[in-house]
Amino acid sequence: MSSSSTIPSQTSKKGTKRKWTHNEDVVLISCLVDLHNKGTYNVDTGFKCGYLLELEQMITTSLPNANLKAKPHIESRIKTLKKEWTIVYDMEQGRGTSRFGWDHERNMVVAEDPVWDSYIISHKDAAQFRKRSFLFFNELSDIYAKDRATIQDAQTPANVLNEIEEDVAHGIDDGSACEHVIGLDDVDISVTQPQPSVGKRNQNSTTSKK
Q: What is the torsion angle, in degrees rounded to the nearest 10, for the CA atoms of residue 89, residue 95, residue 98 and residue 100?
């Protein structure tokens, strides 16, 4: 079994792509959860403009030597994690996917082989999670599940991931179009602020079915 975000951080030759370490992912998700719980930047579709800059400062407080910037690092990583979460969420909670379950100990989607074989015919992106964990499913569900459920009611399976690209193009959810609107002068981040435990579920059972 493989898990996401375990490769040491590095920048590609192009200078924009970056491999995130597991610890960096944990801090990112922790800060994202904290920001969502505060509610200052919350909107129905995720977060409003300016949230990336606040995330940058929160992450810098915890990882001062990581040099993670709102753009391109944090913006790109959140986009990737949200896309992966969407794939997993649609298997775990989507319409017509009741034969999938969730292994709480391994943080994996589980199903019988025939179920997988049938599903990935029309959902090729899901194949990667057949033997791969997704550690931050619970945390990202708390943030994005409401919006995802609304989208599922209005779209077909062929449109499953399109709204993510549209959000980015319109500056919604990633903050790229107007992050200059809100500065960092009013950000109140404590150096000693506690970080919630991320990447683990609290359920007692190992595997659940809807």
A: -30
Mean pLDDT, the chain, whole residue set = 76
Rounded to whole angstroms, how far apart are CA atoms 172 and 93? 24
Whose tokens are 């179920």? That residue is 115
In sign, the C-alpha dihedral spanning 58, 63, 67, 73 is negative
Of the chain, the end-to-end C-alpha distance in Å amounts to: 24
> Counting runs of H as helices and runs of E as strands, what totals does the chain give?
6, 7
Q: Is the pLDDT of residue 37 over 50?
A: yes
pTM above 0.85, yes or no: no
In three-state secondary structure terms, 46 is strand
- Can you spell out the DSSP letters for 116-127? HHHHHHH-GGGG
The token pair that represents 119 in the structure block: 């599903």
Alpha-carbon dihedral sign for residues 61, 65, 67, 68: negative
